[in-house]
Amino acid sequence: MTAVARLRGAVVAPLLAIGVAGLLCAVALLVSGASPWTAVTTVLSQLGSGTVAVDTVNSAAVYYLAALAVAVGFQMRLFNIGVEGQFRVAACVAAIVGGTVVLPPVLHTLLIIVVAVLTGAAWIAIPALLKAYRGVSEVISTIMLNAIATGMIAFLIRPETFGELRGNNITTPPIPESGWFPGVPVGSGTIFGMVFVAAALGVGYWFLLGRTRFGFELRASGESTTAASAGGVNARRTIVVALLLSGAIAGLIGLPELLGRDHAYTLSSPQGYGFTGIAIALLGRNHPVGIALGALLWAFLDKSAVALDVVGIPREIVLIMQGLIVLSVVVAYELVRRMEQRAEQRRVAAGTPEPVGAAS
Amino acid sequence: MTALVERVRTLPGWARSALIATGLVLALSITVTLTGQTQLASSGTSQAAVGLGLPILFAALGGLWSERAGIINIGLEGMMVLGTWGAAWAGYYGGPWAAMLGGLVFGGLGGLVHAVATITFHVNHIVSGVAVTLLGTGLTKYLATLVFAPLSQNPRQSPRIDGFTEFSVPGISEGLAAVEAQQRVFVSDLAGLLSGLVTGLTPIVVLGIVLVPVSYWALWRTAFGLRLRSTGESPVAAESLGVHVVAHRYVAVVTSGGLAGLGGAALVLNSAQLGYLENQVGGRGYIGLAAMIFGNWRPAGLLTGSALFGYVDGLQLRAGGEAVHALLYTATLVAVAGAVLWAIRRMWTAAAVALGAGVLVYTVYWTIESVPSEFASYAPQLVTLIVLAAASQRLRPPAWLGEPYRRGEGS
Amino acid sequence: MSAEAVELRGITKRFPGVVANDGVDLAVHTGEVHALCGENGAGKSTLMKILYGMQAPDEGTIAVGGAEMHFRTPADAIAAGIGMVHQHFMLADNLTIAENVLLGAEKQHGIGRAARARISELAGTVGLAAADGSGARSAGAPLDMLVEHLGVADRQRIEILKVLYRGARTVILDEPTAVLVPQEVEELFATVRAMRGEGYTFLFISHKLDEVRAIADRITVLRRGRTVGTVDPREVGNAELAEMMVGSELPSPESRDSSVTDREVLRVEGLGLPDPAGGRDLLDGLDLVVHAGEVLGIAGVEGNGQTELVETVMGMRRHARGRVLLSGVDVSGLSTMARRERGIGYVPEDRSRHALLGDQPLWANRVLGFQSRPPIGRHGLIDRGAARTDTERIVADFDVRTPGIDVMASALSGGNQQKLVVGRELSGDPVLLIAAHPTRGVDVGAQAGIWAELRRARRAGLAVLLVSADLDELIGLSDRLAVILGGRLVGTADPATVTPEELGTAMTGATR
C-alpha cells in the first residue's frame, strides 16, 4: 500500500466519524428543541475568545499524556484501564513529596517528576506481574486498582497522614515555588511548561515504536503473540515493560496542572483523565500525531462547551458528541481496515500473473 | 479423616457449597465470639449487604449473559448509568414498577449499541465497552440536565420518586429476629445473616435473587441457552450447525444491557436515596463484572461474589474499620482451615501457601488496631485481586470470549 | 440410483483476486460413496462450503433429489438432508458430548430424555466407543463427558453422529482421514460401508488416491477450480487419476548425492516435556542428532509430539527436561532469540499464526526474528533501510510474487507467504533450519520451489530438521528418517529403501 493511500485511510475514517457524530448530535439538539446552528456557531466563536485557546492547549497536553499512556499498552493489545488510578496516585504522592522536601529550583521539579513517574509505574506493577506470570486479565486488575487508588489517596491526604485541612477541602502541603514548572505567558493566559514535555514525549513515543527493537517487538506482540514468540520476542518481558512504561507515562498526567497551576493535590483535584485518554488514544489510532489532533479536538470541545449554557443549550451535548465520535470512529476504523485489506488482496492478485487456487 | 475428605469430594456441587457456606458462617461466628464484633453477623449488616449487593448482582448477571455468548462487556457501567436515568424518569411519572421497566429498557438500549459495534461491526469488545460507557454517561448527563433540571432545579439530581413498600416474609422474619436476639453462638449469627434475605424486601430484591436460578435454567437447561453458550464456546461450530450466531449474540448482549439497567434501577429504588443522582453508579458496573469473574462465569458463583462485595460494603458502612479489621481474623481462620484440608489431601504446596497467607493476614491483624476506613470500603476489590492472582488458572471463561468472529470465515 | 442425491451445476465462486470455483459440475447418485479429489487449493473445500450453505455461489445451481435449492445458511442445507463433517472438527471442547450433538437440533427430540435415547442409539451406528457406556456407570453418563477429554477418532464419530441426528441422508466428509492412523481409517471405512448399506450417501473429499480408490464408487476430480471429469475407480489407474489432479506428473522427489558430513550441528539428549494439563508427558526421553549437510526427517501421525519437539528445540516451551546442544554448545537455558542468534532458522507449521504478521508489510515481516542482530538490528534500533533491501533480495531470489514489499503479508497467497518465510529463515547464514510442514497448503509450483531451496541449502552445509506429514516430502528430502510416536522416537529408517507402507506401520506402532 502506498503512503498516500495509507494517509487517506487514516484521515477519511475519523472525518467520517466526526461527521456522523455531529449529525447525530444535531438530531439530538433538534429533538430537544435547540438549534444545532446556534450550537456550532457558539462553539466555534469561542476559538478566539478569552483564554479558550490557551486553556485548550493546556488541557490537550494533559489529555495527550493520558492518551500516550494508554496507547503504549494498546500497541500490544494491552488495555490499561487503570491509567486513571495510576495518574491520581502518582499526582498525590508527587504532591506530597514536592510539598515536603526542600530543594533548589530545577532539582526540586525534577524530583517531583521522577517521583510521579516511579509511582505511576509502581501502581501498575501489580497488574503487570499478574498478567505476565499468572495470566490475569489486566482489564479487571487495573479496574480494581482504580477503586483501590481512590482509597489510597483518601488515606494519604487525610490530615492524620500527610494532608492538611484548608477550609472545606483536604489538601497536600503546597509545593514551594522552587518545585514549580514555569509556563509561557500567552495573551491573558499561560501555557504550562509541561506542554513541551508532553510534545517531546510524543516524539519519543514515535521513535520508540517505529525505530527501536522494543517498539517492533511491542507491535509484533500486539498483532500476533504466537508469531512474536516464534520470532524470539520474550512475551513476559514485553508485557511487563510495556505496562510499566504505560504506568510511568500515566504518572505524568497530573503534573501539568500540579506544577503549573494548582501546586497541591486536593480531594477535589480533577478526575477522569484516564478514561479520556482511552477515548483519545482510540480516536488517534495510537498514532502520535493522530492522538495530538484528537486531544486538541477533545480539549476544545470541553473548553468551548461552557459558552453553550449561555445560549440555553445544555453543555452536556458535548459529552454526547465526544461519546459518539469515539464510537463512530472505532466502527469507521474497523470498516476502513477491512476495505483496505480486501482492496490490497485484489491488487496483489491482479498484479501477479500466477494462477492461484482457493485457500482450502 | 482422609476418607471423610474423599467422601466430601464426591458430594454433589450444591452439598459441597452448603458445607463450605456452613464453614464460613462458623468462622464468622467464632470471630464474633472472640472479638465481640457483633455487627459481623447482625441482621442490620445483612440487610445492608443485600441492598448494596443487589445492583452488583444485576450487573454481574448482565456480564454472565453477555460473556457466555463470547462478548466481553465492560460497557456494563455505561448501561447501568443509562438505567439509572431511565428508572428515575419512568419512576417519576409511573411509580416503582415503571422505574424497573425504564431501567430495563434504557440499559437494553445501551446493550444494543454495544451489540451493534461488536457483533455487526466487529469492533474490539473492550474498546466498544469503553465507548459505550463514555456515551452512556454523556447521554445520561445531557438528559438529566434537559429533563430533571426543570423539575428539581438541579441538573445532577432527579426529584424524589416513589419506592416500593418493603415487606418481610411473615413468620420466618420474626422467627429469625427472635433467634438472633438470643445471642447463641453460631445459631444466632446464622439467623442474623439469613434475616437480610427475608426482612425489608422489595420486589426488585426478589427479582434479583430469583434471576440467578432463572439465568441458570435459561442458559443451561434450555435449547436456547445451549445455543447461546455455544456461540461463546465455539461460534464456528455453532454456525456450522445452523445456529444463528449473530441473533443469539444480539439477544445475549441486549439482555445483558437490560440486566445492567435493572441494576441502575435498583440504585434508583434504594430506599436511602430514591431517585437519580449523578455518579451514583460509581463503578458498580465494573464491580459486577469482577464479581462474575470471581464466580467463574457461573450463576451461583457470581451470587457469591456479589454477596461478598455487598457484605463488606455493608459491614464497613454500618460498623466501620474495626469490624472490617475483625474480618481479618475470620480470614486467618479460613486460611488455616484451608491449609489443614489441603494437608490432609497431601497437596503440600497449596497447604503451604494457605498457611503462609494465614500467618500474613494474622500479622496484619495483630499489628494494626483498625483498618483505615478509607481502605475498608475497598476490601472487596483487594479480595478480588487476590482471588484472581491465586485462582486464575482454575477459572474457566468461555473459550471464545473476546475473540473476533465473522460469519462464514470459519475454516 | 434414481434421482441424483445432489447435483451441482456451473458453480462459480470468486474471492478477491481468486476464482475458487469456475463452472464446477458435480452429480452424486443416491446411496453411493462419491469421492471429490484434487490438490490443495483445487477448490474442493469452497465447493463443499457452498453445498453446505456456508458461502453463497456467485453463479450456478444446486439441486437436491431433483429439486433446485438455495442455501443461505447451513440450516437450509441441513433441512434438505445434507450434513457436513469438517476437516477441522467443529466441536466445542467445553460442552458435553450430548450438548455438542444437540446443539442446533434441539427441535428434533427436545433436549431431554428422548433426545438422549436417540443419541445413544445413533452412537451405535457410528461406532462411538466413548458413549457405549462401560461397566457400572449408567449408559447415559458418558454423554455428559466434556468433549475435550476425547481422542481424535471419537471426535470424528461425534461429528458424524451430529449429522445423522439431524436426519442427514447425504454426508460430506471433508478430508476425514487426515487426522487418523491407518487402523482408524479402516474402522472409519467399515462404518461408511455399513452406512452405505443402510442407504446413506457420502461425499468423500480427499487428495489421497489410495484411500479414494478403496472407498469410492465414483470419483470427480477438480483442478484449479474446474471439474476435470468424473470416473469409475475400477476403470482408471492411479497414474491417470494423478494426472487428472495435477495436470502433469506428480512432483516426485529426485535422487541426489549425499552431502552429509560428520559434524554435529544439533544434538538433543533426553528431551522431555510434561503436559501442562497434567496428562502423560508430551515428550519423553527423546534423543536425536542432525549433522551439517544432512536432512533428518521426523515422520509420525500428527499429534505425537512433533509440534512440541520443534517448539522445545526453539526454546518456546517451558519446563522441558534434557539438553539441546547446538554445534556442541548447550543452549537448553537460552531464550528463543538467543537460539536464533546462534544460527537456528525456523519455519513453523502454522505460517499465519507463527511466522507472519498479517497486517504488517513484507519488509516488517523480514524483521521478525532478526530484530536483534545486524544487518537489521543494531544497538536496540531497527535499520529500516537494511530490512527493505534484504526483503527485495528475498522477493527476487525466492520468486515471491508480489507487487512490492509494502503490501501486507496477509494479501499474499499461501505459497508466496511461505516462500517469503523460507527466504527469511535462510538469511543470516543459519547453521540449522527447523522446518515444520514447509509446503503445507501451498500450490504445486511453490512447493517445488521450496523443495529446491531446501536442497540447495543442504548442499551448502545446512543441517535441517524436517517435520512433515507428507511422506513423499519426507522421503524425497531426508537423508535419514526418525519415527515419532507418543512423544518418543521409536525407530529410524533409510529413505532410500523404505516404502510409505512400511513407514506407515511404524508410525502407528503396529510393528512392535
UniProtKB/TrEMBL annotation, chain A:
InterPro entries: ABC_transp_permease. GO terms for cellular component: plasma membrane. The keyword Coiled coil does not apply. The keyword Cell membrane applies. It is found in: Cell membrane. The chain crosses the membrane at residues 57-75, 87-104, 110-130, 139-157, 190-209, 239-259, 317-336. Its main location: membrane. Keywords: Cell membrane, Membrane, Transmembrane, Transmembrane helix. It is a multi-pass membrane protein. One of its GO terms (molecular function) is transmembrane transporter activity. It holds the Pfam family BPD_transp_2. This is Nucleoside ABC transporter membrane protein.
UniProtKB/TrEMBL annotation, chain B:
It is found in: Cell membrane. The keyword Disulfide bond does not apply. CDD domains: TM_PBP1_transp_TpRbsC_like. It holds the Pfam family BPD_transp_2. One of its GO terms (cellular component) is plasma membrane. Its main location: membrane. Keywords: Cell membrane, Membrane, Transmembrane, Transmembrane helix. Signal peptide: none annotated. The chain crosses the membrane at residues 14-36, 48-65, 71-90, 97-120, 126-151, 193-219, 250-269, 323-344, 351-368. It comes from the Bacteria. InterPro entries: ABC_transp_permease. One of its GO terms (molecular function) is transmembrane transporter activity. This is Nucleoside ABC transporter membrane protein. The lineage of its organism: Bacteria, Bacillati, Actinomycetota, Actinomycetes, Pseudonocardiales.
UniProtKB/TrEMBL annotation, chain C:
Pfam families: ABC_tran (PF00005). InterPro entries: AAA+_ATPase, ABC_carbohydrate_import_ATPase, ABC_transporter-like_ATP-bd, ABC_transporter-like_CS, P-loop_NTPase. Coiled coil: none annotated. It comes from the Bacteria. The keyword Transport applies. The keyword ATP-binding applies. Gene3D superfamilies: P-loop containing nucleotide triphosphate hydrolases. Residues 6-249, 266-511 form the ABC transporter domain. GO terms for molecular function: ATP binding; ATP hydrolysis activity. Keywords: ATP-binding, Nucleotide-binding, Repeat, Transport. This is Nucleoside ABC transporter ATP-binding protein. It comes from Pseudonocardia ammonioxydans. The lineage of its organism: Bacteria, Bacillati, Actinomycetota, Actinomycetes, Pseudonocardiales.
